[in-house]
Design a protein that fits this description.
By secondary structure, this protein is an all-alpha fold. About 75% of the residues lie in helices and about 0% in strands. Helix 12 runs parallel beside helix 13 (about 230-250). This is Flp pilus assembly protein TadD. Keywords: Signal.
């Protein structure tokens, strides 16, 4: 089992301290050990939910919930681990049990809705979000509300929820990217371009936002590369995206030029771009 050196030192130190006290009973020692073990376990639970291998985390929480079935925090851990392990259907059963229990919270219901969305059950997710009190104003809640509004093509509501969600987090890059993608689907290319650029000011490493930005610009027939930080491989991929967008819009000659640039730019052999260019040249297009 995983243990952190600092926590182990704290455990040993606490036990030594209690054991060294005059007149200390065995019960006192056991309570002390139990208290530091709770600290250790809490830390381990957090590690399992964030950096551990998802399958390993599922196994850990399955064992823990079997040993302590009344611990709702462990059941939450199992549900979240199942989602991380891309097993949302199993997680749905657990979330349903959690929100039905006296210890269930609004945060639990929001996570339940998130898991339902991952399985494509948008209607049920919307129904669960409608049960969340209006006073529960969190980033996750409004992020999901925006996605549900998007699925219903209620653009005004989606824009409102995306804006609220972006204001409720210090790391809005992902939700701004989602909002931009929503605008992209509506063919509001200029609006999408603005949001992708804003997302990249918060996280310049977010490649999906870079790729989406290229598509938004291509929708306006702007095929030159945006001024964002990118490595050589990313530049090749973005040129490829621009090329495909140009070809799709009938700008075949421009697309062929962009494919050549992508092939020359990529640090290794760029199979997809090479195959697309060969197909175009064989067809005599452009």
């Amino acid at each position: 089992m995983m243990r952190h050196p600092v926590l182990l030192t704290l455990c040993l130190g606490a036990v030594a301290l209690v054991s060294g006290c005059g007149g200390t009973s065995d019960a006192d020692v056991k309570r002390a050990v139990k208290s530091v073990n709770v600290i250790d376990e809490t830390n381990l639970n957090d590690v399992m939910l964030t950096v551990a291998d998802p399958a390993e985390a599922v196994t850990y929480f399955q064992r823990a919930t079997t040993e302590q079935p009344d611990r709702i925090d462990l059941r939450r851990g199992l549900a979240r681990s199942l989602v991380r392990a891309k097993r949302p259907t199993e997680a749905i059963v657990l979330w349903g049990q959690i929100i039905a229990s006296p210890e269930g919270t609004s945060d639990d219901r929001v996570e339940f809705a998130d898991t339902l969305i991952r399985t494509g059950d948008w209607k049920r997710a919307e129904a669960e979000l409608n049960k969340v009190p209006p006073t529960h104003e969190t980033y996750e809640r409004y992020r999901l509300e925006a996605m549900v509004a998007d699925s219903n093509k209620n653009w005004a509501k989606a824009d409102s929820f995306y804006e609220i969600a972006a204001g409720l987090t210090t790391r809005p890059a992902n939700v701004l990217n989602n909002w931009g993608y929503s605008k992209l689907n509506r063919r509001d290319f200029a609006g999408a371009e603005k949001l992708f650029n804003e997302a990249l000011t918060h996280d310049e490493t977010l490649f999906t936002a870079k790729n989406n930005l290229v598509m938004a610009r291509a929708g306006q027939r702007k095929y030159d590369m945006p001024i964002v930080r990118m490595n050589q491989s990313e530049r090749a991929m973005l040129l490829y995206t621009a090329a495909l967008s140009a070809i799709k819009q009938g700008d075949v000659t421009i697309g062929k030029g962009l494919l050549r640039d992508a092939i020359e730019t990529h640090p290794q052999h760029f199979e997809e771009a090479s195959r697309a260019l060969a197909a175009l040249e064989a067809g005599g297009q452009g």
